[in-house]
Structure formats: structure tokens, C-alpha cells
Amino acid sequence: MPAARLRALLAAAPGPAAAVGALHGGTRTVLCSGGALDSTRFETGSLSKTFAALLLAELVARGEVSYADRADRYLPFRIPGPPMTLLHLATHTSGLPRLPPGLIRSAVRSGWFSNPYARFTESDLLTALARTRPRHRPGTRVHYSNFGGALLGGVLARAAGGTGSDYPALLAERITGPLALADTTCDPGLPAATGHWHGRPRPPLRMPGLAPAGAVRSSARDLLRVLEALLYPETAPGRFLRTALTEVQRPRLIIPRTGSRLCLVWNLRPRPDGPLLHHSGGTMGFTAFAGFLPHSGTGLVALTATAPTLLAPFVQAAYTTLCALPVPGRP
Q1: C-alpha angle 189/127/74, rounded to 5°?
Q2: Quick check: is 40 in a domain?
Q3: Domain assignment present for 329
Q4: Residues of the chain with pLDDT > 70: what percent?
Q5: Would 331 be classed as within a structural domain?
Q6: What is the CATH number of the domain that holds 21?
Q7: The Beta-lactamase-related domain covers which part of the protein (predicted)?
Q8: In the chain, at which end, N or C, are there fewer CB atoms within 10 A of the end residue's CB?
Q9: Which of 256, 258, 267, 283 is nearest to 146 (CA)?
Q10: What is the DSSP letter of 70?
Q11: Is the per-residue pLDDT at 331 higher than 50?
């Protein structure tokens, strides 16, 4: 039955290439189209933030940072106003706007329809932060922020002794290397599927100043490995990473008027038979989804080489497919 549902999801995938995969009952299944393989890299967009969250939890487990640390503890200047903590950045409660001031102007100069973020650097991110005033007191409202996601990764790299530009290397050292994620990287120069926007091929996305928020490329097989580690943290190498895999799944707040919870970046939907955690992402050439049900050992990933369309029907189809997968051992 999971294979049949995956085939239906793959058939519904827009774009010239796609890969979908599931963990179910101890079995891993991956189906691909358009010449893609289970190892083909796709841009994952905001799914990148789940890696930053795992890196945060890993540094906390080591005692290198605390969730309550002020973000500016690791920056060259103080952020005015009430403390903005690492936990605020990881739960979209920092008060920062969705995008850094100046990013759109930089994107237009870079070429909005070619590579809009290519000229926006870590230095630009810090310049934008210095002149930004939070829209609300940190910790009081949920407001999705790519700005905050990018800042989180840069701060973690600095806390580990580097600069914001060292984030990809730190991610490889602490997360993707230990989990044996051979296809997962922030490097836009490595072989990958070609993204499409309105049927037209796109160049690899370059975003040096926003890498933690959206630059991760990954494959169906690697993302299933991540979900497997989240489902079975005890199997991961190293006690700090095992702790981190559990910590990112712990609910941190309730989203008003929805009943949903927010963990470290991951969204959590309560269900009668146990919670469902999920996240999605999109770039100007790709759409990505990952979700899992800890109570049943079930997870699903869906990747396609085309940009999200209005209302993100492919993401919705992936979410529905995950919900419809039967609990192993039940009829």
C-alpha cells in the first residue's frame, strides 16, 4: 500500500524530475521520475532550517551554547531592545521581519530572474540586522522569518569559533558527516537536478548570506536517513547528536488559534494517534517536503525540480499521503 500511494504522489509531482520516498514498517522505499535517482540533489529551500535547528540542539547538548543565550552574545555588536535569544530564532519568535532590509534591492541588482540572492553576503546580513528593529518583543508572537533562520546559523558558526561563512563547514562536521549524508551540502557547484520556474530551467541558487535559511541541497535517500535518525535517535552516532535529535522534536510553544505546536523549526500537528511533525521548502526552481510520525516509525519525503505554485498543491499532496500511510502492524 505505501508503494501505491508513493506512485500516486510521484504521478502528481509537477516538473521534469521528482523523487519521493517513505519509511514504513522498517522498509525504505524511493521512487523517482525524469531521470532522477535516490541520490540526486534537489534544493530544499526552507527545509534547510531544520538542519540549523539540529545544529543548535547539538551545540546545546555539548554545552557550547544555551537556548537562552542572547543572539548578540556571538555578534560584533549589541542588538538594541529586549534580548533576542537563540530559542527565539529557532521558533520564529524573534520579531525579525521575513526578509532582511536591503535584500530585495540587492536581489534586483543581482538579477531577480537569474540569481537574486547571489550578492547578499554575511556582511550584508549583519548590516541589515544593525539597522533593524524587531516588529514585536521577542518571544511574544510567531512570525516566520528567513532573516531569523539565516542569523541563527551564522550565530552558531560564530559560537563554534568561526564566522558566519563557516556555517556549511560546521554543518558538515557536526551533522551531515556523522549521519553519513553523502548528498547533503550547501555547495551550489556540485551536481544536482536542474530546477524549473514556469517551465524554464533555473541556475543553481546562490545565497551566501542566507545559507542556513535555504541553501541546503539534499537527496531523497539522505532525507530519509535524517527522518530515520529522528524516528530512532538511539541509533545515531554520539550522545550529543542523539540528544539533539530528541530535542528538536520537543514542542516549545502553541501556535494561537490553530492548536498546532512549534518545535525547534519543525511544525507539530497533534493527532489522536500521535503527533505529526513536518516542514516544507521552496526555491525559484524546487519544492521540498519532509514529515514523520514518531509513534509509528513512519516518514515521507517529496522533492520536485520545479518552484512551488499557488497554494503549494504538491506539498499538500505529500502531507496528505503521509497522513494516509497506514500504521505498521494495523490493518
Answers
A1: 85
A2: yes
A3: no
A4: 98
A5: no
A6: 3.40.710.10
A7: 8-309
A8: C
A9: 283
A10: B
A11: no
* pLDDT recorded at residue 330: 53
Asked whether the whole model's pTM tops 0.90, one would answer yes
In the three-class reduction of DSSP (H, G, I as helix; E, B as strand; rest coil), residue 224 is classed as helix
Cα radius of gyration (the chain) = 19
CA torsion angle 89 265 46 313 (round to 10): -140
36, three cell numbers = 532522477
Pick from 296, 289, 283: which is nearest to 314 by CA? 289
Phi, psi of 154 (to 5 degrees): -65, -40
Q: Which three cell numbers stand for residue 232?
A: 530512532
In a domain, 330, yes or no: no
pLDDT tens figures, 185-216: 999 999 999 999 999 999 999 999 999 999 99
The side-by-side arrangement of strands in the sheet containing 253-254 is: 27-33, 18-24, 298-304, 287-293, 276-282, 267-269, 261-262, 253-254
Q: What CA–CA distance (Å, rounded) separates 141 from 134?
A: 11
User: In 3D, which of 122, 210, 105 has the Cα closest to residue 163?
Assistant: 122
Give the CA angle between residues 1, 288, 45 to the nearest 5°: 165
Phi-psi category of residue 296: left, alpha or beta, with phi > 0 → left and psi -120 to 50 → alpha = alpha
Residue range of the domain that includes 186: 2-324
Burial of 143 (0-12, 13-18, 19+ CB in 10 A): middle
Q: Exposed e or buried b for every residue in 110-126, given b needs 16+ CB within 10 A? A: eeeeebbbbbbbbebbb
Q: Phi and psi for 133 in degrees, rounded to 5?
A: -110, 125
